[in-house]
Design a protein that fits this description.
Strands 1-2 form a two-stranded antiparallel ribbon. By secondary structure, the protein is mainly α. About 70% of the residues lie in helices and about 0% in strands. Helix 1 packs antiparallel against helix 2, helix 1 packs antiparallel against helix 4 (about 90-115) and helix 4 runs antiparallel to helix 5 (about 125-150). A hairpin with a 2-residue loop joins strand 1 (about 155) and strand 2 (about 160). The protein has a single domain, classed as Ferritin (Up-down Bundle), CATH 1.20.1260.10. It has helices spanning about 1-30, 30-60, 75-80, 90-115, 125-150; strands spanning about 155, 160. It is elongated.
Length: about 170
Amino acid sequence: MEKVVEILKTAINIEKNGLIKYIDFAIKTNDLMGKNMFLRLAKDEYLHGEIFEKQLDAILCNRPWVCETIPESIIERIAPKIRETDKTKGEEGMDELSALKTALELEKKSIEFYTESKKYINDPEAIKIFNRIIEMEESHYDLIQAEIDHIERTGFWFGIREFSMEGERG
């Protein structure tokens, strides 16, 4: 139980850190779509933190894991559509790019931590919760990577090649 408590406390801190970072990025981002994306990410991080706090409370009170149905987030619904319109990034895109790269690293570390933590948890309900949060963090990662690719104009959008150097659509 001690290891599970430690994992949950760390998870809560990860989510609070993400929430604070994303709100800070939203404040500093001039691009409206970028600002909204960071606010949506912050909202999801808040939800994740609440879920982990509820689980920690249950464990500390010798109760079983709380059954959680975590609904699809707005990011999971809009990620494939968020960049339907093309827009040109100017200098403001450079600040956003730095924030996005930091956000990408936060999501990567979260995914790694939650994946590793599952090894120490033997409750099936807990495993479901961790798997669901990992799915959400992966959708965050994909969205952030798509934004980075768009700003850097790599020719990829959600990992799919948009165009070749010869100008052909992929």
